[in-house]
């Protein structure tokens, strides 16, 4: 019944951010409007919208006053390849970390918005194949 249609990111320079997201996340432009642009991912039904704002607005929240967490993450099949590509291209990243077999790192867009890259752990209840089984059983 419901699914995520679009995720919106606040950016201060729409032109610069459009180029950055196209280059690093390989999104493709759908259309533009006054103050925004919509993109699609070649391998995902979820869309990405960039909305121009006057001042940076962070896309993260704080857990227990200490740890910061982005509102969403990106799944990749080869986290090492993406990490290397980002670093070769000057994208600011954190180190790759591990938790329960999951590997992840954060990266930052030109406005400093943090996002996470995550690999899927086979056998995890959160793996896309396990989610498909849950969806089919309901």
What would a concise description of this structure say?
With 138 residues, this protein is an alpha+beta fold. It folds into 2 domains: 54 residues, Roll (2,3-Dihydroxybiphenyl 1,2-Dioxygenase, domain 1); 81 residues, Signal recognition particle alu RNA binding heterodimer, srp9/1 (2-Layer Sandwich).
Share of residues in strands? 35-45%
Q: Major sheet: size, sense and barrel closure?
A: 4 strands, mixed
CATH topology of the largest domain: Signal recognition particle alu RNA binding heterodimer, srp9/1
Task: Give the low-pLDDT segments.
Answer: none
Strand order of the largest sheet: 1-4-3-2
How many individual domains? 2
Number of helices: 3
> If you compute it from the alpha carbons, what radius of gyration comes out, rounded to the nearest whole angstrom?
16 Å
The number of strands is 10
- Report the span from N to C terminus: 12 Å
Classified by CATH, the class of the largest domain is Alpha Beta
Net shape: globular
| Elements, N to C (H/E) | EHEEEEEEHEEEH
Per CATH, the architecture of the largest domain is 2-Layer Sandwich
The average pLDDT is 89
Proportion in helices: 10-25%
Q: Which secondary-structure class do the elements indicate?
A: alpha+beta
């Amino acid at each position: 019944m419901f699914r995520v249609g679009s995720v919106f990111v606040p950016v201060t320079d729409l032109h610069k951010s459009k180029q950055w997201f196209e280059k690093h996340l390989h999104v493709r432009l759908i259309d533009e409007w006054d103050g925004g642009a919509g993109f699609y991912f070649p391998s995902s039904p979820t869309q990405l919208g960039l909305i121009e704002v006057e001042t940076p607005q962070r896309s993260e929240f704080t857990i227990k006053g200490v740890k910061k967490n982005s509102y969403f993450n990106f799944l990749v099949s080869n986290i090492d390849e993406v990490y290397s590509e980002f670093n070769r291209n000057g994208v600011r990243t954190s180190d790759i970390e591990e938790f329960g077999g999951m590997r992840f790192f954060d990266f930052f867009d030109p406005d400093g918005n943090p996002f996470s890259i995550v690999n899927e752990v086979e056998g995890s209840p959160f793996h896309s194949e396990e989610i498909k089984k849950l969806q089919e059983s309901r």
